[in-house]
Specification:
This protein is an alpha/beta fold. It has helices at about 20-30, 110-120, 215-225, 245-255, 340-355, 365-380, 395-410, 415-430, 445-460, 465-470; strands spanning about 1-5, 15, 35-40, 130, 135-140, 150-155, 160-165, 165-170, 175-180, 190-195, 210-215, 230-235, 260, 265, 270-275, 280-285, 285-290, 295, 300, 305-310, 310-315, 330, 360. The strands form 7 sheets. The protein has a 5-stranded parallel beta sheet, with helices on one face. Its cofactor is FAD.
Amino acid sequence: MVCDESKALQRKKVCVIGAGMAGLASARELRREGHDVTVLEQNADVGGQWLYDPRGGGADDPLGAAEPVKVHSSLYASLRVISARENMGFTDFHFAPKAGRDGRRFPGHGEVQLYLKDFCDAFGLMEAVRLNTRVLRVAMAVAPTRQWMVRSVHEGTEEEEEEVFDAVVVANGHYSQPRLPSIQGMEAWRGRQIHSHSYRVPEPFRGDVVVVVGCGASGKDIAMEVRGVAKEVHLVAKSMEEVTPGLAKVLAKHSANLHLQLHVERLCEDGRVVFGGGGSGVLADTIIYCTGYNYSFPFLDTAGAVTVEDNRVGPLFEHVFPPSLAPSLSFVGIPIKVFAPWFFEAQAKWVAQVLSGRRTLPPEQEMMRSVEEYYRAREIAGVPKKYIHDVCLSETMPTYMDEFGSKYCDFPRVERWHHELVVSLFANMNDNLETFRDDYHDSDSIRKGVEEWHLSAQQTQAAPAAKKMSLGLSRTSTVVCAHPS
């Protein structure tokens, strides 16, 4: 990647769609590079997915089948992060405990949203954010200029506005549009069916026989919570490989009303749910689908240049730039299970520097060839198309992320103790599913790293926000985070 420091930098008018973690990272990096930035956010506050909305999906669409969904956030009330707070934060603005707030290592979702608000305040980002503004359409402006027409509507007044931007950064997240399974009998089943996107609290399921489909983080969380009020909970896994020692302990401890089942074979009109593996099935009241989410960009019109096929967004060079529309259109936050917001910052810095002319992209044909080679490599490795953006599937994930930052924007590498903390966390979670957030034991190297992290956090908090903005503090410590499930 070519970096030309002698070249006069260009100042572009840039629209960022979304004020969640990826959008805020983008706004900060773009402004640092000197661009004129406008962030359009449909909700009444910043935070994106981390802004809790008690409404859920609503009674009219509990499965979240409509596109776009009416409620953006998929958080449930009791959700706590599954990544240590020392591994969640921007590189120069640590997610440190604050007096009078949730200081746990694994805080609740509300603390993350407050932290993102603190980040906005520290770097003066709110002046660039338009709240309650939903994007209706993004399309190329009239040729020959490679600009973008963005049409939006202000929620409440319903006033629409059209603006032209030199570039658009799409950062609207990908944990909102439910992905639903295809199960025989779903349409005729008489019980209540919802997606975890619409789940908020367990009380509505009191006394029910509940089937939870999906054994990921949210599926296990919700099954354990609903078990406290339901008559029975049947947690459905794809195979026994998903049953960790920690889950086995939970099943044994709560065997009176928490049961493991293998995949759902079919749903019957009389209310029965028939499981695979020779099970006879149960008469259920409710099914909660914890089956993940789809990428969704209902506002984006690229005339077919960017498509979503079996949850693969593409073609995207390095998951960021569509070759035929680069650099005026980019995506930040597409990869899943990456170190974030570290990776979002690196992506955003790259985008900002390409737009300013500080760095240049390869020719379109070369970028397209790189995308095709990546697709072929994943196909040969047996990776389904829907997991194309899951860079964590690769054993070389830390190397890939460090090389990305080094190659495209001179970003610092993740300190080794952060990797160790992630490995330690998941080992503890696999063994102690109910207690890993509150009962953990750090190695000496992790403990030393955490101590240095807290010292760095204190120094950062002591620096005036104005000085941070004007000087752009050096990134001396890198932190990581896991996405909500």
